């Protein structure tokens, strides 16, 4: 969209205090200006959703110009976006959330991976049918808490390195070969993830035990649960405890999400 590309930079110069920007359902948007978003020095949240004509070949310079202040980046429903689009992400040292979905041309991430995203807490990759490998450099992300991989059937294994100790939740959904490798029983990748408190494979908790739960959330009555049950492992007064923890409202987003997953799974607490 030439007009947007030519006039966009001048518009951005007048919006240096902008913190949140969503570009959504822009059918005619084919490119972004060469200057990218570097003029938005206060930008914290960027979302690009359903821009079907947006091409990665015209965006490399734009992505490389993303401001280092960015904390959340969500890219979805962009059929022409490929791996080159992410070349400039190494500069996003403040990024806490990175989500990419519905990008069928994405087959791989740049070789440098995500090792420079030292503040990343949440990583979500979904519906990228031709993506063959996960980004490298995950092990060094000491703040990563949640990692979701959904409907990326070409991903057959985790990266060679062990996933970071900070991870609280790993969810694998719609990735048959990856799921098999992540199973506790005979999964080749299980040693890389056995330290993660909550591993969820196609909606089912793997290796459930209240010891991990009690250690992570310091639940006082966790010893009253029944360790011998795999599919229902929060019983009796522990229900009250979990409900109380949810109601306190001072847990990180990741913890609340996990607790809500458990409540939904067990079916004993209304949404």
From TrEMBL:
Under the heading InterPro entries, the entry gives: At4g27190-like_LRR, LRR_dom_sf
Family annotation (Pfam families) = LRR_RPS2 (PF23247)
Q: Where is the Disease resistance protein At4g27190-like leucine-rich repeats domain?
A: 14-129
Protein's recorded name: Disease resistance protein At4g27190-like leucine-rich repeats domain-containing protein
Taxonomic lineage of the native organism: Eukaryota, Viridiplantae, Streptophyta, Embryophyta, Tracheophyta
